[in-house]
Amino acid sequence: MIEVISGQDLIDAGMAQGKWFRPALDAANAILRQGGSMADALAAARRFEPAPALPLKGENDVPIYANIAAETAYELGNVEKVSATMRALVRTPVVRAAAIMPDACPSGPVGTIPVGGVVASDGIHPGMHSADICCSMAISTFPGLDPESVLDAIHAVTHFGAGGRSPMGRFRPSDATLAAFSENRYLYSGLEGAIAHFATQGDGNHFAFVGTLKSSGETALVTHHGSRGPGARLYDRGIKVANRFRERLSPETAPINAWIPADTEEGEAYWSALQAIRLWTRESHYALHDMAAEKLDTRVGDRFWNEHNFVFRKSDGLFYHGKGATPAFDGWADDATALTLVPLNMAEPVLVVRGSNAARGLGFSPHGAGRNVSRSAHIRALAEEHGADSRGLSPNNIAAILARETAGLDVRFFCGNADVSELPSAYKNAAAMRAQIEHYGLAEIVDEVLPYGCIMAGDIGRDAPWRRRKAQKAG
User: Annotated catalytic residue: which of 289, 308, 367, 378?
Assistant: First the structure.
């Protein structure tokens, strides 16, 4: 009679019971049916046994390179919070190193990568590039044109706010990019969004900035936005896949820091999806620039771009996650130039920098000026300063703040209402940011786009339909 191995036999052999027992028993009993020994059968079963769960690393096992200094009480509190969240994050088993940029600020519960954070890891962590995948900067010059004309042109063709363009006003990404979407398991169902959201800029801190190059006086257009709906969809799917791996590989790891092993089928598909999202976002930037040029019946001059919410793979095999951090190492992408862009605030220049591949920055530089407090905390502080009541800032308050902070600039809000959480006072001191970039050797400032004006989404929720309905019911 042919011997049969049972689940109890595997337990008696020292194996921990789990869902893997079924395929393990099938393999083991197949060996016995073929005349193999019990030892061979148990060896076949053991090949299905999951690896032991990876424990969290110790608090001091992973280096954290801090490139940030506090000059005020607000900044000290911010640095302490950023440091605490990084100390929790680097306990993730596959993380190798981390860095904090001068513009760093918290962006979630303790353990969440901060804005202005860089993490080197053996795995790909969707939570470490955030939902705004490939948030990025692009610049085009417009030789011989004045800034006002360029600002008017981009205002006429861009799209800010929630959702995408109307069906009659849409533009298509390239056939190659759409093919990359259709061929990827993470992206193929999002083709409609890839078209609807193309050449749109969303809301929040995204902008179209027009100014003149300090070096030449040439007019330049700088845009800032990410991958919109397609990127958010990929992020959601990536987080779910990563957490399925986390439950098996490291249940103690925080869900936001779950990773997809790069050498798996899921990891390879996710990496390919990231590259497709990157192509889509670059095309989205340049489509807006080209539309503005067409409006002006001209051609753009020089142009380049860079992302600052993305994952990069270096020659050491590690994956470098920059959340609000600009790549500053050689060859960070096939289309990389020697230059990248670092905005500060709407009243300050956009810095054109050359990366220095600083070891203490893990090869990254800042992506902007960052915040010391949240948007809501900043608005509360402004309301207190202006003696506003519990209903918040009045239109007169907002007009006074806007006039004070944007004097001499052509600042426009696409949706009609100013967003005071995006005015210069909401951000860290620009001079301090420049000084810390130099002090820590993170990049070399080689040129500047001096501000003329900009367009942002504005306060898109202030007169939103759901607010009007709520007010009508209350009245």
Answer: 367
